[in-house]
Amino acid sequence: MYHIIFSADENYIKYTAVLITSIVKNTNKNKFYLKENKYYFHILSNFISDSTIKKIQGLEKELNDIFPCIIQIHILSDKNFKSYPISGAAHSSKLPYYRLKLSSILEEQIDKCLYLDSDMLCLCDIREIFTINLEGKIAGVVGDPGSKKFKIKFKEYGKKKVLYFGKNYFNSGFLLINLKEWRKNDIEQKCENLASKSYYIKAADQDLLNATIKPQYQLKLDFSYNFNIKTLLYVICKNEKPNRLNYTREEFIESAKSPKILHYGEKPWKFLKSYTDLQGKNINDYWWQIAEKTPIFNKELLEQKTNIKDHLLYSTLGLELLKAIKSFNFIKISSLIHDTNQDKCFMYNVQIIHNEIFGLCCMLGEIVLYARRNNKNTFNVLLKAFKIINEFKKYANKIK
Predict the structure, then answer these.
(1) Extents of the domains making up the chain
(2) Rounded distance between C-alpha atoms, residue 327 and residue 361, angstroms
(3) What is the pLDDT of residue 35?
(4) 219-250 per-position pLDDT tens digit
(5) What is the pLDDT of residues 83-133, one digit of tens each?
(6) Which of 55, 101, 128, 389 has its CA 20 to 30 A from that of 8?
């Protein structure tokens, strides 16, 4: 049996359905990794309506015609996480913490499971992951591509303390878990104990797991198993700068040539276009190809697709910011932040943005929109944009 866990609220169920469909459709019926040849998909949620439950049941029925699977729903409550702070990634809901309870949810006899974020897409026969030997390790993990500036702020014996992370910081969107070792090391309780003392946790469950699963209990897996699509724009590897992606440039390129699980930063249901892969294809197209084939949910997904405009706004705002920086037009940068009336005028320019810089423009557009939401000034936008542009110039040409 292959136990795979997801977290999803009512709105995210349809995206989880696409991921589940990608797993089933990429299963090779002629290859048997384990004798117990069935998927058990577990969805952790705070609420799922009766109508959505019926859709999930329909999805399960149709996918069973392709490969045996069972979809189980586990409803939890934020009340179960009273001691967990509302901050960072858990600023509006405690759903990100739900995966920390998976050892209590799954039956005792289950010795291995795989957790996946719902904004992923499977491109391989996922059963190969379950053949990985985790003997003596708590979890198989994949390094996070961001800078290791995440931290947990907590109080202990009346004193404020800060816990910092280093090069082994992993992304919790993919976790191959040895449940025997997880329970033996009491990971669930350790996370709760640390959370109860914390008043700020930026990356929610991810930070807690990095704090409680020490490097000697981690099995570092290939980056292809949790391939963050933003790295297609540019990535800084460990042999180029410390405390960034904990893989060499050579290891990264091999993963980029044939990623096995895509992890979307720019969500395909918001961005029809973002980054280009090494084959020259828009990475978001892969997701929509599966969405079109997702039983039950495909109709509403395709209807949603017709109204997607985020990629237009982000990319064109980013293009205008890029042009303003190149011409040292600080008045223009200020107007991008404060004058939202001009947004519609910019959006006609999207067709002229080359694929090579489209993702860069999206990223720069996010800086402008973040400044609007958080009342940041021109200087703040300028500094962030300069950093991204300089890193792009230095590292983007090393990907291919």
Answers:
(1) 2-304, 309-398
(2) 16
(3) 56
(4) 999 999 999 999 999 999 999 998 899 999 99
(5) 898 877 777 789 999 999 999 999 999 999 999 999 999 999 999 999 999
(6) 128
Please give the DSSP secondary-structure letter assigned to residue 242: T
Helices assigned H by DSSP within the chain = 13-25, 50-63, 102-105, 179-184, 187-197, 205-212, 249-257, 283-291, 298-305, 310-326, 330-338, 343-346, 355-374, 378-395
The token pair at 147 is 């800078």
Burial of 311 (0-12, 13-18, 19+ CB in 10 A): buried
**Residue that the structure tokens 């040409």 belong to:** 397
Confirm if 116 and 5 have CB atoms less than 8 A apart.
yes
Nearest to 94 by CA among 105, 106, 103, 82: 82
Calpha distance 44→152 (Å, rounded): 25
Residue 266, Cβ neighbours under 10 Å: how many? Answer: 23
Instruction: State the Cα–Cα distance between residues 259 and 247, nearest whole angstrom.
Output: 14
CB 203 within 8 A of CB 87: no
Phi/psi class of residue 327: alpha, beta or left (left: φ > 0; alpha: ψ in -120 to 50)?
A: alpha
Q: How does pLDDT run across 150-199, given as a tens digit for each residue? A: 689 999 888 999 988 989 999 999 999 999 999 999 999 999 999 999 98
Query: What is the pTM (predicted TM-score) of this model?
Result: 0.95
Q: For 2-304, which CATH class?
A: alpha beta
Please state, as a whole number, how many other Cβ atoms lie within 10 Å of the Cβ of residue 218.
Answer: 18
CA distances from 353 to 26, 29, 242 (A): 33, 42, 33
Contact 122, 23 (CB under 8 A): yes
Question: 357, 317, 344, 315: which is closest to 333 by C-alpha?
Answer: 317
Distance, CA of 257 to CA of 153 (rounded, Å): 39
DSSP category for residue 86: -
